[in-house]
Design brief:
One of its GO terms (molecular function) is magnesium ion binding. Keywords: Amino-acid biosynthesis, Aromatic amino acid biosynthesis, Glycosyltransferase, Magnesium, Metal-binding, Transferase, Tryptophan biosynthesis. Its EC number is 2.4.2.18. The model has no long low-confidence stretch (mean pLDDT about 95). Helix 4 crosses helix 11. It is globular and about 55 Å long. It contains 15 helices and seven strands. The termini are far apart. Helices cover about 50% and strands about 10% of the residues. It has a five-stranded mixed β-sheet with strand order 1-4-5-6-7, sandwiched between helices. It is an alpha/beta fold. The protein folds into two domains: about 60 residues, Transferase, Pyrimidine Nucleoside Phosphorylase, Chain A, domain 3, CATH 1.20.970; about 250 residues, 3-Layer(aba) Sandwich (Pyrimidine Nucleoside Phosphorylase, Chain A, domain 2), CATH 3.40.1030.10.
Amino acid sequence: MRGFIEKVEKNEHLHYEEMVEASRLMFNEATELQQIANFLIALSKKGETTNEIAALATVMKSFALKLNEPVGSYMDNCGTGGDGLNSFNISTTSAFVLAGAGATIVKHGNRKISSAAGSSDVLEALGIDSSIDIGSSMDLLAREGLTFLYAPNVHPRLKRIGLVRKQIGKPTIFNLIGPLTNPVALKSQYTGINRPNFTIEYATVLQMLGRERAIVVCGAEGMDEASLAGKSEFVLVDKGDLIPFTLTPEDVGLTYAPISAIQGGDAQENATIMRTVLQGNRSAYFDSVIFNAGVGFFANGMVSNIPEGVKLATDSILSGKALEKLEAVITYSNESRKKEVV
């Protein structure tokens, strides 16, 4: 590992094969945690490349548990996090909106690493058990067309890496690969990053990993979601093509709102915001969700344009279907917990 650290510290990029080897060393129990930390910090300072990201994602996915998911056409809408803007859990809320309108969602997520409340934190605040066993998680997917995969449950070798990431306390390449390492084979994907000048590169990684259709977004102020606070940069991956485009909230029939209008708090506060949105209360929180879910529907191929997607997202909430999906997942989680006790 020392040789790779030294090369990266010299501002030299690793070739794909080199990064595969370095990645395997990171997941090796014999590798010292401090060496892993030094490597991650050096990569972050240098700036990660498409080859480095794709190689690490491929190695990490190869070590993931085999889930034996039911046959289906699956989508993930998790973002990289790490934008430091303290927004509420937009993509987690959007997952219920997407599923409420018929998209089949397998959302990959984690606890907070560099944010106030991660996806798994807010789900637990809602009463959804993140420690649900894999069999039950796949049963939930078959029943409801929606499930949440807690990354440490499906990536057992992440435990030591998690300790290092908490020690570093800042975004690393592992933030970038979170959305790329869902163990389920995804047909489509909608993901956000906090690097406005990296959307094409990230879309290229998705292409390298075999996504048929996907959208990458970086919102105003580096938000890892489509933003109401200005212009968002997107790249559509469609059958091998990479198509950049931009959108403002006004372009999809929504109104401007500053980042401060969608800020969240701890897991319990964010759970309350999520419920308020899914109950149909109009606000900047609501508009952020329908904007992002609308892009998600377009990435999934369920609509022909994003304004249509925003309308479908609005209907999913106002019809009560998105909230019904939340309640169904909570009920299933409670029943699973009772079975475990018995």
